[in-house]
């Protein structure tokens, strides 16, 4: 040590040794200062963690407080008389739904009468309380059940997004002053109808299973079709990245000689793991769509891009679990006459399998939530309104994916879609959480410590 | 023969080959398994692999090459006149659509195969006729397009037939050759293992191919872009105002500035919080606290970026406006809208907290215990030990971690697309909306842009810049981290 080191560890130098009377029993100013610094430092750490946890809570609160309402939807239940003549006339006209609108008008007026709610609104204005998809809803019922024509059927028709927003507290009377779609007078009616039980808010399965709807009908939009799109993409990712990832890891971990080529692969894998996801989107656009002419917006392309993106993750975790299998297993297999290949495929791989599956599930979860590359291969701006008709069309027909659908909703002008976007996030997080829990359980149950 | 059918036939041949090869080997040994060189299954696999691998490889190659050859042949039929009116790629996509329409019509039984080949625009309204089978064509079909489409169909039919013959022939030949070699002295296991080894190598090489694919797709399109737009203007231009009508100014400087600004804010949020959290978790926290707090913080890392994007757009943005906006709580009018640099930076910072904290945690844990003990033994308090011994020792690693976080921030897309705004601006005010490199890649490449225009191609140059910058940061950071780890191992 140099002579600048003093008996005091505070680092305060005086040059000449100052003798100070100290006692272990009495804390002097310096000790107090140092202890205070110690406490402060500890508090900084606690505060940092609390801030992090606060952000987590705030995020989850924002998601659930805004998104849970998307699972409830306002319905108007009215008995509609499916008059045979009117149905035939409607089916014969060019715009088929307009005929059904007349039926809805009549049914609404009749129902309000029955409930004793007085209104001076024209029937066509009354209909504004319903979704513009209501007529199509009745028509598809008629087409599916031709036998019910001529009877009176009680329908649960979707209320318009404004009415829905009013019951959920998003739309106020003041906000409707300049609104062409609904007037404040409608809301008074809605209040009355609600007390009479005609208008009701309840769980909306269609949000989970349904398809996306156009800009003007947020009340009809659902995430079901894009969920299927995500499912098909995940199938592609699973069936490509698991075998390729495992094969690559086996080679690198068990067979690769130490040479330039192996180093090149290693460097590439570690770099690909850190390349921004949008760059993979550019690759997908240039290689799969521009060059290979695969269809735009198709889950197969999305799956291929996400496969390339998740491969490094899977390879890294697979290698770790292969490495965790002790060499004695390999030696024993080789010792009883197995070839190197047999020792790996018959003994090492099965023992590493739980770890590999855990890594794969985590990789899949990452791929499921990824959005940016999907934007570039055309999975937005596309209204996912049709369910794929079969396996092949599931892979090759344009579709959306859950995160792309959420992005699409977030971009739309009508705030009613924001609620859908948050709701979509809840669905997405549900899947991610399930996958992660499965991964944790797999790891807990099957991972062996050697 | 359709593609799935060919693949199915190959698999059927392979399955048959497996059984036959195994049976032949067993027969040559007179049913005594001990006389065989390898286990009987290996003989079967040997035949099956010989049937599958060459034929599938040729099939993939054929699939890649046939469209190129046909496109080349057909596009030479199109007069320069038609090309000058629109563009070759548009005419060709019309040709393909007409060809597919004819296929549909033949499949629906509305046209006979001969009719489809001989139909002429002079006599029939092809567009109307195809329209009846749900094949929508944008404009009337010219006779040139129709001829090209017919030629296209003809070539595709020939190509498909050739494909089926060559591929299935190869499968049969391969299987027959391997089958003829299946005998009790044939070293089937060695042969199968050699093939499996090559498959493993091929799988490992996909990482190289991916990088190569990224680099090639970026380089080619960037080269195209620089032929249309001067590179100096791109790198040093101070204005970003693309217009698809022409006369765009595509300077990258404002985009880079906003990217760096947002990343800086994100790091300013995440580094102190992440670092203090890591220090606390690794040095002070009891095992129980650590077991709860660490996974909870890491939940933040598992949340998809689209969620953070929405959080920025719909929660944080409006919240910040209610403080700093017009008539806000602070009485200042700094913020015009919810999307701003500060919004995106703040949310990105939240996203990066677990990234910084878990990386730094690893690094702090790697500092040898002896250094802690030494410092404490000399009388330093715990925080003095952390500040004067552990952090200096861990500094290179922490710098590496911060660089990795910076590279993550620069490449982040969804948060800035939703939270940062769309207007490119060179400004110091963090409450203003700006736009970043990644956000502009998305906006230039989504929609129906013509890929040949500089406005679309510029996205590839932006991607190239992004790729080079993040790659450089990553390599540098990994180098630092690795060097630091070696120091204490």
In short:
The complex is a heterodimer of chains A (450) and B (489). Chain A is mainly alpha-helical and 450 residues long.
What does this structure look like?
The complex is a heterodimer of chains A (about 450) and B (about 500). Chain A has helices at about 30-65, 85-90, 95-115, 125, 135-145, 160-165, 185-195, 205-210, 225-255, 260-270, 275-290, 300-325, 325-335, 340-370, 370-375, 390-395, 400-410, 415-445, and strands spanning about 70-80, 150-160, 200-205. A three-stranded antiparallel beta sheet of chain A has the order 2-1-3. The two termini of chain A are about 45 Å apart. Chain A contains 18 helices and three strands. By secondary structure, chain B is mostly helical. Chain B has two domains: about 5-185, no CATH class; about 240-489, MetI-like (MetI-like fold, Orthogonal Bundle). Chain B contains 18 helices and two strands. Chain B has helices at about 5-30, 40-75, 80-85, 90-105, 115-120, 125-130, 145-180, 190-230, 230-235, 255-285, 285-300, 305-325, 340-365, 370-375, 380-410, 415-420, 435-445, 455-489; strands at about 240, 250. In chain B, α2 runs antiparallel to α7 (about 145-180) and α14 packs antiparallel against α15. Chain B is flat, with a radius of gyration of 32 Å. Chains A and B meet through α1, α9, α10, α11 and α12 of A and α8, α10, α11, α12 and α13 of B.
